[in-house]
Amino acid sequence: MKNPILISTAAYDGYDLATAFKEISRAGVDLVEIAFIEGYTDPFTEDYFNDDNVAKINALLAEHNLLCPSFSSHVDLSRDGIVEAFKNRMAFAKKLGSRYIVTNAAPLQKKSQFMKNIKELGQTASDLEMVILLENPGDGNANVMDSGAPAAKLIEEIGQEHVKINYDFGNLLSHCFEKLRPEEDYKFVRESAVHYHIKDVASDDAGWYFTEIGQGTIDYQKILKELAVLSEPVPISLEIPLRIRRAPDASPRRASQPVDLAEIRQVMTSSVDFVKQVLAG
Question: DSSP string of 178-189?
């Protein structure tokens, strides 16, 4: 079996889902990861996650012959009131056909509340036959899962079959200020990561920015070859938030205007081609 390849709508921030889906299909991919990420995509409220919008999105998916196995919904799971809100987001994602829902975990100082919340949310995931994927962050702030080793320990501590890891190679670089390398760090989570975000990163005096896969500083030739021979194929999602930069302190900076669609198209098409070629050996 081959690794499923997805494209995250995060690349198309500033464009509607109809445009994003058309472009994703055009890039030669039939799996999409719909992204609703606070601070990284167009603003939204919890009211968005309703059955009317489920129907609209499902119609668009069908129109473009796409499936949505993964849904990005990054929040701080220790936040007040987040349990019910996240349950609603999970139900919304389930109605779009998603098995996986990707989210942040929590700041390190709020681990106790996070552990309480994730126990309840893990049970909901089980009931929905979904998997909550906790993602290693990129913002440089102390987290319950700063890198591979603590992330693996956290999943063991949670001890729920429906709570796993989405490992993000690009996030590690800014989060740890390049003191760790993702090519080695991700190996700590091979048993608990069932989904991967692929983004490539380069840096300059203004911080970090995202590039076409294979054109940044991460050795994806090595990584993708290793992922291709895992005993169980893992989904690989190209999450390339071209509108975002990270400042020297790793905090995100979202450009005031969307990236030109022609530029997005070139980056995504070339990235898909690169990933497919490496995975094929």
Answer: TSS-HHHHGGGG
The residue type found at 14 is G
| Sheet of 200-204, strand order | 200-204, 207-211, 244-246, 252-254
Does the model's pTM come out above 0.90?
Answer: yes
Closest CA to 274 of 27, 9, 69: 27
Residue 111 token pair:
């681990």
Q: What is the structure's pLDDT at 42?
A: 80
**DSSP β-ladder status, 252-254 and 244-246:** antiparallel
| C-alpha to C-alpha distance for 13 and 244, rounded to whole angstroms | 9
Assigned architecture for domain 5-280:
Alpha-Beta Barrel (3.20)
In 3D, which of 123, 38, 98 has the Cα closest to residue 74? 38
| Structure token digits, residue 200 | 């490539």
In whole angstroms, give the CA distance from residue 90 to residue 73: 9
Distance CA 44, CA 7 (A): 21
Q: Enumerate the domain spans of the chain.
A: 5-280
pLDDT digits (tens, 9 = 90+) for 36-57: 988 778 878 999 999 999 999 9
Per-residue tokens: 8? 């995250």
